[in-house]
Amino acid sequence: MLVAGNWKMNLGHADAVGRAADVVRATDGATGTVDVAVCPPAVWLDAVAERLRGSGVRLGAQNVHPEDAGAFTGEVSPPMLRDLGVHYAIVGHSERRQLFGETSAFVAEKVRAAQAAGLVPILCVGETLEERESGDAEATVLDQLASSLEGVGSADLVVAYEPVWAIGTGQTATPDQAQAMHAAIRGALAERFPGADIDILYGGSVKPGNAAELFAQPDLDGALVGGASLDAESFAAIVAAAKDAG
Ligand code: PGA
Fold first, then answer.
1. Which domains, ranges and CATH numbers included, belong to the chain?
2. Which of 2, 30, 128, 232 could crosslink 22 through cysteines, CB 3.0-4.6 Å?
3. From the CA of 225, how far away is ligand 1's center (Å)?
4. Which protein residue's CA is at the shortest distance from atom 2 of ligand 1?
5. Nearest residue (CA) to ligand 1, atom 6
6. Is the full-model pTM beyond 0.90?
């Protein structure tokens, strides 16, 4: 099980460092059995890395550029993240796809570049409400998955299923909806990377109150948590639910 907190564009310097310390304290005792990570804004990665040092909590970035260096104003490269001790990099989050126009082809470049630098990509896929209501959810997600893995040769990655309609809305996929999509993703990954063991996280309004029933599903291997990860106690409760689910 892996539980990763995506802080998005939230928290100032002091709050980010304080939150990292709170997460280390609140998840102590679970990090041996559950992989725990926090993904702060890029400007606080260094300070948060310092605070996580010696703990079982890993560091993740919310985004990464596919090139190692060059004229890409405002971007951060995979080797730069590695230098900071970053372990995971979220790629293809629906906010990046929708608000910043990232295509699956570009996302696939990021997956390849992150892996080449020794980062573990957390590749996000998910359908919109319209796609779900028109009955196309599974085809959409599997298509997004395949095109976001174009040219990717290594199974060293994590996949996060995040239905767009469940992100930040308080509306969570039901355990059955999540399980059905995770099983479909699992099947597609087994064909793409035979024999590989790839964690599939669920994301979209995961909270302490719904984490246990989601984690009870056989194909859920953890969660990518947005809003609830900003509160160390809520995040720790989700981590505890993952631990209980084994
Ligand atoms: P949420 O965000 O938990 O606030 O819905 C999840 C995500 O965007 O990763």
1. 2-245 (3.20.20.70)
2. 232
3. 5
4. 226
5. 226
6. yes
